Amino acid sequence: MDALTIAGRTYASRLLVGTGKYRDFEQTRAAIEASGANIVTVAIRRTNIGQTAGEPSLLDFIPPDRYTLLPNTAGCYTAEDAVRTLRLARELLDDHRLVKLEVLGDPHTLYPNMIETLAAARTLVKEGFEVMVYCSDDPIMARELEQIGCVAVMPLASLIGSGMGLLNPWNLRIILDQAKVPVIVDAGVGTASDAAIAMELGCAGVLMNTAIAAAREPVLMAAAMRKAVEAGRDAFRAGRMPRREYQASPSSPTGGLIG
Q: Which of 2, 80, 214, 228 would bridge with 192, disulfide CB 3.0–4.6 Å?
């Protein structure tokens, strides 16, 4: 599979994974290894990466020298909180600049608050952060975030943790057609076929957490997601056959038939 490039750096895997909702850090490590992911996102407000002394640190299980950590602002509802959280992450991770911005609108739907997201993105880009941004599937918002300077736009497939899959492929196609930065589906993937569909549409990658962590067998699901992303990307690059409505086409040659 061809490499994913974000902010000038390349990654072998196009599957990005989260670290929440697992039974323990051991299961987290096993699932991430099975996923083949290179980029691992971490909720700074919910996961210890050194800010809480005396408690187990995720970094003991997911070492930064092996994975690219992607600090995120899960649980933030204002631009101010999101910016403050990522400044803390930069300090904890030795001036780390690649981050995932998400500013939520309400605790029920976890839908992005795009007004606050835009405000936070402007501040973070000015401060030198490389911002990957969770957003609605509104093509105008996605374009605005790219113009601000975000290095990747990450429209939701459906609500975070819902497992409903890709509900609006049409908007996603518009975003893909206009974007000059990677478009990575974020949120709502439920199973391997959801990931494959997103990749077949031309997405640069898929980010997921609950779809793996909440599976009956998380490590096995992580391996399935790895294969789905690879297959979907290969199918996109190969180019699917044309759809033929109301018209069949035989698979075998028609010439030289007996009689």
A: 228
- Choose among 102, 143, 141: nearest CA to 124: 102
**Which residues touch 95 (CB under 8 Å, ≥6 apart)?**
none
- pLDDT tens figures, 12-34: 999 999 988 888 888 999 999 99
Report DSSP state, residue 212. H
Model confidence at 242, pLDDT cuts 50, 70, 90, reads confident
With CA atoms as reference, report the closest residue to 161 among 89, 116, 108.
Answer: 108
pTM confidence score: 0.88
Say whether 207 sits in a helix, a strand or coil. strand
Q: Burial code of 112-121, b = ≥16 C-beta within 10 A, e = fewer?
A: bbbebbbbbb
What is the set of active-site residues?
100
How many other β-carbons are positioned within 10 Å of the β-carbon of residue 42? 24
Give the CA dihedral 238, 170, 6, 119, nearest 10 degrees.
180
Q: Cα separation of 91 and 114, whole Å?
A: 26
